[in-house]
Every structure is written in C-alpha cells, then in structure tokens.
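Step 1: inspect the first sequence and its tokens.
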Amino acid sequence: MPDWNRTLSMPFHTIKLPKFLFAGLFGSCTIFIPLSFKQDIGAIENLILFALVFALINAILEEVIWRGVMLSSLRDNVSPLYAVCVTSIGFGLLHLSIGMPLLTSLLFSFGGLFYAIVVLKTNSLYPAITFHIIINLGMVLNGWIL
C-alpha cells in the first residue's frame, strides 16, 4: 500500500501523494466525457458487464506484467530511466502488435510512461491498476474496445 503521507519529488516541484493520485484519477476519468454525447444509452447497459470484466482482468494483468514484473526486474539491473523507457515503448508495441493503429499505440506508450511513473513514485501497483481500470472502462463504454 502507498505511504499516504509521502511527498513526491518531481523535477521542478514537490507534491503530496494524495494530490498526485487525485490528479491522475481526474485525468483518467476524462475518458468518460464522450459518453455524455451518446444518444443511445441502451447499448451502454449491455456493455457494462463486459466492460467491468475486461477492465479488471486486463488492467490487473497488464500492470502486474509490465510494471510489476518487467519494470521492477529492469530497474534492479539498469537505470530507472532506461527501465521506464523500455517498458513504456514495449507497452505501446504490444498494442501495435494486436492491431491497434500506430498513433493509438503511441498514446498507449505514453500511458505506460504515466503508469510507470505512478508505480515508481508510489512504490505500489495499486494506483496504476486503478487508473488503468478507469481508462479501460471508459474505452469499452465509448466503443473504442469491443
């Protein structure tokens, strides 16, 4: 579990862990904005179970593999910057290999970068898993993942 009293040091400022996590949670929740423009809400009701199952399983497995196993293993053997870069690029390439467009995969690399920073700054996978679940839920409910 994260140390809730911890202050995180960034390159140009410091921030308390709860504020950092709230900012990440707020940013992750923006994925739901397109839902407010949907007219046919009935289709969303049919996707809720799929969205929940997909979001939970996918987020947990990806975070455990990419940030839990790979990032921590690389960090033990190379610099943290190198470990973050390799796992972030690999995360994007994984999505490219399953048929996502190049631009989307590049955005996933930036997501992997964000998740890696969250894990390194909080010393916990739980916040990254939570943010990842929210993003996955939004992507499924917006029809971007079916």
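Step 2: inspect the second sequence and its tokens, then contrast the two.
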Amino acid sequence: MKRTIFLTICTALTSILSLGQTSTEMFETESHSSSSFTDNGVIFNINSHVTTFDLQANYPGTGWSGTANDNRYIDNSNSAGNGASFSLKTTSNLFKANRFWIYLSNTSLDQTVSGTLTVTGKLSGVTKFTQTKTTGFATSLGTTNGYTLIDLTNLNAQNYSNIIIDELQITLGGAYTYAGLDAFTWVKDSGMVLAANEIKVSKNALSVYPNPIYGPFSIRSDESSRANIYDQAGKLVKSLEVIQGENKADVSDLPNGIYLIKTASETHKIIKR
C-alpha cells in the first residue's frame, strides 16, 4: 500500500514538473557581439528594431545576475539612440516570460533622466500584451549595480507571466537611449514547445490545407497517428485520429485564432478564421 502511494506521488510530481521548466539566462557563456543565444536547448534571436542590440562582454562587472555583478548582458552600447528597441524571439519554440533585469540611461549613462520602458509580448507577430512602465527605475548603481527588476508577474499590477509568446519586445522612450538586459527568466513548457527535433520538415509526413482554415479542412499524412490541436495557451482543444492518406476534419466549433496541430513526428501552425 505504501509503495503504491509513493509511486502515485512520484508520478504526480513528475507530471507537474514536466509541464514547465523555468530557466534564467545570465549570458555568461555567450559570445561577445553575438545576435543570438541558447538557453535550456532553445535558441533566441536578438532582433534589433531601433539601434543595434547584441551580446556585450567588454566591460566585466557591469552586468547583474539578480544577486551579484556579472560580466555579460545584452545592450546597444555601440549605437544608443532615441526609441531604442529590440526583441528576444524564438523560431521553433513558444515560451512564457517571467522577469528580467534592465539598466536604463541616456547615451552618457546618466540614470537620473526621465524615460519609459514598454514591454510587449507577441505570438506569430500578433500582440498578446503590452505595458509601459514610467516610474520605479534605478537612478544610481546602488545595490543592484544600476539594474531595475521587471517582474512580469506584477507589471503595473498585471500578471503577464502566463501568456504564451514567441517574442518579447523591449522599447525605450523619453530620455532613455541605452539599455542593458541581464538575468532573463523564462518558462519552457513541454505542452507548448515546438522543439527542433519535433519538426521534421524534410519528411513532409503531414500537410494541412487550406491554411488559414475557415471550418472544414484536410490533413494528408504518410502514416497513421493521433493529431492533437492546441490553442495559444497550450490547452488541448481537439484530438483527431489520422490514417495514412487524406483525412477530413472540421474546426468550425473553435474560436478564430492560431492553433498548433501536433502528431508524434511533426508540428504545424494553423490559423482558424
């Protein structure tokens, strides 16, 4: 009896832990001037929108790990300017942003100037949330080396940490022209991850058409399998038995939006209109 209870508890804990993996990227092993980084097996691209952001490793001790000074972070030190903006974007994964630390100043590294910070989460180019912070920024090195914590569980009294995105955009406003971002904490969820080894483009075992979908659609598969459809929150909304050849399906009952259809070997994004 005790053994059965113990195994049940272990199974439950394993299931819970597999749902989400929290990871913090401190950039200490990343290459200087790189425009991408890898954390917990996921590749993030640093996409510059206004001014150029990349990995900075030339100024040891000027970063912040969340508890102590560190040496590497993302910044735009070579091209600071008005409206500076960049994104952390994945191409084969979805994620949830939790928090990050950011140093904000003008080009002369004066932190006492007035500015704003806008944080935007996007999924497939569609804005899922956006919030502008106007106060509460560090104005001196102090105990955090000049960095301000941006906590998405309570940003302007709103919780954005449970929203699934593939891009987190940071935009400066006012007199802020320089930013250094460090200690990026995010969540990789097994229920929403499109790992590279799950997407077998060359095999082309599964095709969905038309896409966008307006209701009925076709699935052509080279193998028999189960196809699960997930919404943007990672929730399973429909399950289909797919046989080899052409299959008919219908999502008329689903709200318009973006969905993922997954089989054992492939994952495809579909748009319901």
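Step 3: confirm your contrast with the notes below.
The first strand starts at residue 21 and ends at 25. Residues 2-19 form the longest helix (18 residues).
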